[in-house]
What does this fold into?
Amino acid sequence: MSSPIPGRLLALREQMKRYGVDLYVIPTADFHGSEYVGEYFKTREYLTGFTGSAGTAVVLADEAGLWTDGRYFIQAETELSGSGITLYRSGAEGVPKIQEFIQAKLPQGGCIGFDGRTVSAKSGEAYRKLAKEKQGKCLTDVDLVGAIWEGRPMLSGKPFFFLEEAYHGKSTADKLADLRKEMERVGANVHIVSSLYDIAWLLNIRGRDIAHVPVVLSYLVVTLRECIWFVQNEALSDGQEEMLAAEQIRIMPYEAVYPYVAALQGKAALYDPATVNDRIVGSLSQTIQKIPGKNPTEAAKAVKNPTEIKNTIAAHIKDGVAFARFMYWIKTHIGKERITELSAAAYLEAERRKQEHFLDVSFDTICAYGAHAAMMHYAATPDSDAVLEPRGFLLVDSGGHYLEGTTDITRTLALGEISDEMQRHYTAVLRGCLNLASARFLYGCRGQNLDILARGPLWSLEIDYQCGTGHGVGHLLNVHEGPNAFRWKQQENGEQGAVLEEGMITTDEPGVYIEGAYGIRIENELLCRKAGKNAYGQFMHFETITYAPMDLDAIDVCVMTKPEKEFLNQYHRTVYDTLSPYMTEEEKQWLQKYTRAI
It folds into this structure.
């Protein structure tokens, strides 16, 4: 079957010619800078055939390129084959950055095109600067991919729901009061919020407009006295507008945000240029004092309050029960019945659905056998669905949304015989995971200071993984949340990442990915806590809040240090004590074996 991609590229180029566009940029984005996007917004996927969650396409009259990160190099190479689109591996040696590529390719007096609603204000400003250097211009008010996309899905407008205080722990009124204090501190009297995660957290609402991300397509404008929510009418159910009015929140139509911000005069507007789109910022009048900066809510929601922490731990216990039962099933049924990647993922989801207050998986489950696991974000399809055999590794990266919170866990399971190299690599990954989890550090450290603890055992083997070690996790929100993270490289914008605060939850997930052979990842979530305080300062430590066995069948105990073994044994005692009350007698005996001391 021939690929439709060359035909779509041809149609786009005809539109580019019609509008005088020399170079067209298609990011992976909605109107809000979201990491994952709804079906309506998958223009880059439609145009290129690449299905990964991150990437930017750039199309010219005679060539096209796609930039994506290390999680997707293998997948993108496969999916772009035969498309006429060149893969640019972001961050790899000798690979130009997108802006460097545009600078080199844009002709003198040329035109850069992009949909200003799907490009951040920060990126839009950079593209305009590049165009100006060539005495060119930008076209930002036409969606050229939308013009050729027949049968494009409708914009989602699903009903939302209010999260009860028993689950969120802090009222919208109190959150708005804190936000307004921050606005006044930076000299702003208007705050434009585009991030769907921040809006959901601030208003204590959750929705269904992005698969596995419980958010509502909307914008928010907060003044020192008003709070205006721009949302589709379809999202509102009976009585909800009155409930919002009681919280002093006024409703306006979704698309009305553009004329609203254009009509603002003489205000000082705070906005995050990384998430607020180019068209919104471009709509602001010359009388507006622009105050670009991070949303104050980003840091606030990253630090979980006591109610959120209590609920999140409860969610992890439920999730641990589900995963342990899944692991028991895999270990006792492999080789005895036909199990595939898709049927294994379905079994795990069914176990999660048995848990009280389960709402959804927190992302599409990655259930990857053998060489498939070398693709960090592999997604099994009916065509690729591998049959699991009693040998090699199965990597399962999964999670759930519960009313109590969001989970993200990865385990790599030995299904039978593994090679010495696989065992050596698995043990190095395990050691890295344990070393980071057991860290004790002074307050003021950032993820960049601690990342070496996870990579150290791998670097000693002169291997690495092409991604960060960990990310923040939202509270019944996006599974990838900032600003906290573990990574060793400083970000391109010069930011060092957030100081690790008490109450932050960050994943710990080192890995090894051998193309064409296997992949290994182990992931727990770490809750940052205060430790002792003395003359040297405030010390911090992590509490592991993920409860599931590490696969002892794959470990080479001989290379582990005594502290590593002691930490693993203590962790497994906690796992057994936490999960065993929910297990059958047979499951309990199995769990005891897989959490035994080494």
